Amino acid sequence: MNQTHIHLVITHLPIFGSFLGALVLIHGIGMKSNQTIIASYNLFILSSIGAGIAYFTGEAAEETVEDIASVLESSIKAHEDFAMYALVSLIILGLVSILGIFFTLMNSTFVRSFDFFVLFVSLISFGLVARTGYLGGQIRHTELTDDLKSPAAEGAEKSTEYSDEESEI
Predict the structure, then answer these.
(1) For residues 129 and 15, is the Cβ–Cβ distance under 8 A?
(2) Among 17, 22, 72, 112, which residue's Cβ finds the most Cβ atoms within 10 Å?
């Protein structure tokens, strides 16, 4: 197993972890269960660790696919750029979750307000990481692209442009 395999496997953890963690947190808030809330915080921490691993294995994954004819550099760049926003949001989510565990265990007076704040951060993080996953899927799953042109058609256009330039010489 290489870093590309790790990247492809681990990228799903932050997506599902942030979503499931939000559902568990909503349940914990509704049931007023500190154990359930702490469980959601642990899911968020694992998700943030997974996001870090996914981000740092992304370069190896890029090197694996960048020379494949059907892969567009623009798709890789969009995924890579957006991944930084997702990583930062998930790091913040992990850190506020650590604080949430501390506040919950200390039975702080503003712990319930903080739970809602963490829920808000988790939903933003989920949106960012889900978008990052969507952009990553477009790298190899051309059926996800919004473009009308396929990479093969784009390559054909480039070769036609080259032929036209050649004939002018």
Answers:
(1) yes
(2) 17
Angstrom distance (rounded) from CA 44 to CA 34? 15
Least confident residue range of 61-70, 90-99, 145-154: 145-154
CA 161 – CA 118 distance, rounded (Å): 53
Rounded Cα distance between 94 and 21, Å, is: 11
The owner of tokens 């915080």 is 41
Q: What is the pTM of this model?
A: 0.81
For every residue of the chain, DSSP letters joined together read: --HHHHHHHHTHHHHHHHHHHHHHHHHHHHHT-HHHHHHHHHHHHHHHHHHHHHHHHHHHHHHHHTTSTT--HHHHHHHHHHHHHHHHHHHHHHHHHHHHHHHHHTT-TTHHHHHHHHHHHHHHHHHHHHHHHHHHHHHH-GGG---SS-HHHHHHHHHHHHHHHHHH-
Per-residue model confidence as pLDDT tens digits over 86-129:
999 999 999 999 999 999 999 999 999 999 999 999 999 999 99
State how far the Cα of 91 lies from the Cα of 85, in Å rounded to an integer.
Answer: 10
